Amino acid sequence: MNVLKTTWLAALLMLFTSLAQAADLTIEITRGNDRATPIAVVPFADGDDLPQDIAQIVSDDLQRSGYFEPLERGAMFARPASSEKVRYGDWRALDVRYLVAGRISREGEEISIRYELMDVTGEHRLLGETVTASRQELRDAAHYLSDQIFEEITDIRGAFSTRIAYVTSSGIGDDTHYALHVADADGRNSQQILASDEPIMSPAWSPDGGKLAYVSFETERPAIYIQEVASGRRVRATAFEGLNSAPAWSPDGRRLAMALSKDGQPEIYVMDIASRDIQRVTRNPSIDTEPAWSPDGRSLLFTSDRSGGPQIYRLDLASGEEQRLTFTGNYNARARFAPDGETIFLIHRGNGGFQLARQDLESGRLVVLSDMGQVESPSVAPNGTMVIFATQQGGNGVLGGVSADGRASFRLPAAQGDVREPAWSPFLN
Amino acid sequence: MQLTRYARPLALVLSLAFVAGCSSTGGGQAGDLTGIAGGSDRGADATSGAEGRGVGSVSDGRAGQMADADSRIPQVRTLYFEYDSDVIRSEFEPMLTAHARFLRANPNTSVVLQGHTDERGTREYNLALGERRAGAVERYLNVQGVSPSQVEVVSYGEERPVARGQNEQAYAQNRRVVFAY
C-alpha cells in the first residue's frame, strides 16, 4: 500500500469533506416476521438522564433483524434491573421467550452498562456482562449489546455494530448535488464524506472496513477513487477512457474488480491495487458489468446482456470458464453473494417490477423477497441475515431492507432528498 | 437487446443512404436542415455564447448562408430514445446531420456525447446502456464523415435525470443523448 500512500490526494479532499452531520435515516418496520421470537428489552434502570435510550436501541436492532419481535414497553408490568429480580411466570404469561434487563452506573465520565439476557422458558440467565462507554459511545455500546444477545440466541454473529455507506442526491438537472455518506447500520450517526455537483456512484467497502472505493464524475468523466473512511484521504485508482465503474474489492483486499469500456464495450477487469496492473477477464461483444467476488475469491458474478437481456453469469478466474446462472425472467442484474457462497441476491424484473430476489445456486430456484417500488443496488449484511437496497417511496429514493428469508422488511427514509446505493460494511470489530 | 443489435447496422445503412441523399440535393437542403434544427423548442438550452463559438473558423469563399450554417452549433442538442433501445429515431436524423455537418466544417471543435437512461433497472447496467446510446450517435456521426477525434462519449446512466417522477413522460425525457460542445 506504500504506492497508494505516496499519491493520496489529501488536498483535494479538503474541498469535499464536510464535518457537518447530515440528517440521519430513521427506521420504519414495513413487515414484521410472524415467526419472530418474542423478546422483552426492559428499559435499563438509572438510565433516564442518558442522551441515548440503550434498551430502545437494542430493541430496535433486534426487531430490524426480523428474528425478534420485541414486546412493547406499555405491556411490561415489571421492570427488573437484574436477573435476581425477574419473576419468570409474569413474562411467560406475556408469551415472552427471552428477556433483557440492565442497570446504568457512572464513574466520572465513564458510563457502565450492566446487562443480562434471560431465557424465560428455561428460567435461567444466558448472558451477563458489564460494558463501559463514554457518552459519545453509548450507541456503539448498545449495538454491541445487540450483537451479543443476537449471537447468544441465534448462534449467528450479530451485524449491528457495522456501518452503511450510501449516496444522496438533491435537486434536478444541472442543479443536482450528490454526496457520499457513512452511517451506522441503523441509519444513525450519518457523516458526509464526499460532496460533488457531479454524480457519485457504486460505493464499495474494503474487506477491512477502512476504505471505500467509488465512482465519481467530478472531473466530468467517470473515475474510480479509493478513500480512507477515517482520514478522508483518497487516491484516484482509474481514469481510463470510457466507463470506469462498479468497483468491487476482492476478499483479500488486494484487488479491485471493475467494469471498463476502454476496449470498446464494458468488460470486467481485475486491478492489482498495489501495482495498478489490470487484467481483462471477460471477452464478449456485449455489456459485461457489475462484478462481485465470491467469498473464496475464486470467481466473480457479473451481469451480461450477451443472451439478449441482462442475466447473471459466473466466471471462474483460474479457468476462465463462464457459466450462466439465471434463467427466470428476462432481467436479472447486479448480483451479490451471500457470505456462505451458496446463495446469491440479485435484482429481478417480474410482475412486481424490479425487486430483490434470492437464488440458490445448487437448485437454481429464484425467490422474490421484496415488494417495494423499483428495488436496486442490493448489499448483503456481513452475517448474511439481511439485505439492504435502494427503493422508491412517494417519488423519493429511500433505503429498504429485507431479511434473507424475506419474512421481515423495513425502510430507512431520509428527511429529504434521494437516498440510494447502500453498501453494507464488513464486520468492523 | 437482440433486436437492437440487428437494428444498429441497419441504422448505419440508413444513415449512409441519408448522407447520399443530402449530397445530391445541394445547398438548399443544408439551409432547410438548419431551419429544422433551430425551430424546435428543445433548443432552448442553447446559449448565445455557444452559438457564437466557431464563427472565426469560417474563412473560405462559400456563400454567406452556407458559411453561417457551418459556423453555428446546431441549436437542438438532445435526441431521445425508446425504452431499452439505442436505435436512432428517424425524426432525429436531420438534427444529427446538422451536427455532423457542423463538426466536419469545424474540425478543431470537439463534442462530448452524454448518454442517459431512465431510472428503471440497475445503475451500473444503465451506465452501460447510456454508453451504448451515445455510441450509436457517435457511429452515426462517424459514418457521416466526422473525425472520431472530435467526438467523445461519456455515459451518465440514470444519474443525471432532467425529469423526476415514475411515469412514462419523465422516463421519455430522461432517455437521451446530449451534445455537449
TrEMBL record, chain A:
Keywords assigned:
Cell cycle, Cell division, Periplasm, Signal
Protein name (database record): Tol-Pal system protein TolB
Complex and partners? The Tol-Pal system is composed of five core proteins: the inner membrane proteins TolA, TolQ and TolR, the periplasmic protein TolB and the outer membrane protein Pal. They form a network linking the inner and outer membranes and the peptidoglycan layer.
GN (gene name):
tolB
Q: Which InterPro entries match?
A: 6-blade_b-propeller_TolB-like (IPR011042), Tol-Pal_TolB (IPR014167), TolB_N (IPR007195), WD40 (IPR011659)
Q: Name one GO cellular component term.
A: periplasmic space
Sorted alphabetically, the Gene Ontology BP terms of this entry are:
cell division; protein import
Query: What this chain does, per the record?
Result: Part of the Tol-Pal system, which plays a role in outer membrane invagination during cell division and is important for maintaining outer membrane integrity.
Q: Where in the cell is it found?
A: Periplasm
Major place of localization? periplasm
One Pfam entry name: TolB_N
Protein family (similarity comment): Belongs to the TolB family.
> Gene3D superfamilies annotated for this entry?
TolB, C-terminal domain (2.120.10.30), TolB, N-terminal domain (3.40.50.10070)
Q: What is the organism lineage in this UniProt record?
A: Bacteria, Pseudomonadati, Pseudomonadota, Gammaproteobacteria, Oceanospirillales
Q: Which domain of life is it from?
A: Bacteria
Q: Where is the signal peptide?
A: 1-22
- Supply the source organism for this entry: Halomonas ventosae
Residue ranges constituting the TolB N-terminal domain according to the UniProt record: 25-124
UniProtKB/TrEMBL annotation, chain B:
Region: Disordered; residue ranges are: 40-69
Protein's cellular compartments: Cell outer membrane
Q: Name one GO biological process term.
A: cell division
Topology in the lipid bilayer is annotated as:
Lipid-anchor
Task: Name the source's superkingdom.
Answer: Bacteria
For this record, the Gene Ontology CC terms, alphabetical, are: cell outer membrane
User: Keywords for this entry?
Assistant: Cell cycle, Cell division, Cell outer membrane, Lipoprotein, Membrane, Palmitate, Signal
Classification via SUPFAM superfamilies: OmpA-like (SSF103088)
Where's the OmpA-like domain? 68-181
**Residues making up the signal peptide according to the UniProt record:** 1-30
Name the InterPro entries on file. Bact_OuterMem_StrucFunc, OMP_bac, OmpA-like, OMPA-like_CS, OmpA-like_sf, Pal, Pal_lipo_C
- Subunit structure, interactors included: The Tol-Pal system is composed of five core proteins: the inner membrane proteins TolA, TolQ and TolR, the periplasmic protein TolB and the outer membrane protein Pal. They form a network linking the inner and outer membranes and the peptidoglycan layer.
> What is the documented function of this protein?
Part of the Tol-Pal system, which plays a role in outer membrane invagination during cell division and is important for maintaining outer membrane integrity.
- What HAMAP family does the annotation carry? Pal
PANTHER family from the UniProt entry: LIPOPROTEIN YIAD-RELATED, STATOR ELEMENT OF FLAGELLAR MOTOR COMPLEX
- Give the family, as the similarity comment puts it: Belongs to the Pal lipoprotein family.
Q: What is the designated name of this protein?
A: Peptidoglycan-associated lipoprotein
Give the source lineage, highest ranks first.
Answer: Bacteria, Pseudomonadati, Pseudomonadota, Gammaproteobacteria, Oceanospirillales
